[in-house]
Amino acid sequence: MNGGDQTKHSHDDAPELTARRAHGKRLTRQRRLVWDVLVAEADEHLSAEAIIERVQARMPGLHVATVYRNLETLVDEGLVRRTNLGRDRAYYEPARGHRHHHIVCQQCGTVSHLHDEVLGKLPARIRSVSGFELGDSEVTFFGTCATCRSS
Ligand SMILES: [Zn+2]
Ligand SMILES: [Zn+2]
Ligand SMILES: [Zn+2]
Questions:
Q1: How many CB atoms lie within 10 A of CB 95?
Q2: How many A from CA of 102 to the centre of ligand 3?
Q3: pLDDT in tens, 34-57
Q4: pTM of the full predicted structure?
Q5: Distance of CA 62 from the midpoint of ligand 3 (Å)
Q6: Of 18, 7, 5, 4, which is closest to residue 104 (Cα–Cα)?
Q7: Is 46 helix (H, G, I), strand (E, B) or coil?
Q8: Residues 3-33: pLDDT tens digits?
């Protein structure tokens, strides 16, 4: 981490994390398929529809409800992170070992990550004004991305 653009960090641990997290879990063939689809685009934020489309491309005939159920099971197991990113949309990605906050462009829908450091003293300030000690909180910010701002 060079302290530069915090929104574009790499996750080189993804393959290792994949192996470690999935190890010991008895993933059914269907669940493994959903998991593989997510890991193949680990830095993306896929909607349920996009995941269903990709899974069905690999296993034609698999019911939408089945894909959805397997997806939710992966979320329940902590392997997959579901984030609500506004407009009644949820996005899915493989869970990471560290916390991610999201910034969403309201014009093009681009989603980027922010790490905890970006929030700076915010957790301490929240504690001092409200007495709340933040738990496993993730924050989503909405705005306009650099590309949209410059066009
Ligand atoms: Zn990260
Ligand atoms: Zn944008
Ligand atoms: Zn994310």
A1: 18
A2: 6
A3: 999 999 998 889 999 999 999 999
A4: 0.76
A5: 26
A6: 7
A7: strand
A8: 344 445 666 555 555 555 665 566 788 899 9
